[in-house]
Amino acid sequence: MSAPERPDRTRAAPSPRDYARPTRPPLRDRRSGPTDWSTLMTRRTRTIAIMLTAASLALAGCSASTPAEPDDSAAPTVSETTDATSAPATDESSSEPAADAPTSLMAVVGTEDDPEAYEIELTDESGATITTLPAGDYSLTFVDRSTMHNFHMTGPGDVDVRTDVPGSDESTIEITLVEGTYEYVCDPHVSNMSGSVEVTA
């Protein structure tokens, strides 16, 4: 009787495949089963992109709702507008008297009936006595027919005009009157024959 065959317990030499790294098991999505890495990364990228888009829209909405500050640098102020529209134009260089003021003055000594009368006055052409005048240029006509009186006027602006005591004088001169008080007298009779005129600007 032959002896039973003994099993061969020798192990074969391991192959290089036995040492290969085991493959990574696929991830499992709780909702739809196994999912590979590329699919998962695509979803995460899409989610991040959506979040970034939403944040950009929110920032754009905030900046659009902020009103722009007005630029007041070019707008004229109330005081500038008032000054430009309400200030009347004036011509300060003009030395002409006002329209209703006389331009011809009469320096009268005595009266028409009595040239030797103790009378002295400054009048307009109509004979009305003048006590005030606006500053300006005037023609002054002497009416001095007296042989014992004269007309002597002085005042601001170096005005100093007179007639002679003896004889008569009916000449006309040009004078410029400025703001101030002008006095006129008869030199021989200052206490009895004098007057004044106020000149305004």
TrEMBL record:
Ranges of biased composition (kind: Polar residues): 76-96
Name the residue ranges with Basic and acidic residues bias: 1-11, 18-33
Spans annotated as Disordered: 1-42, 63-103
* Record-given protein name: Copper binding protein, plastocyanin/azurin family
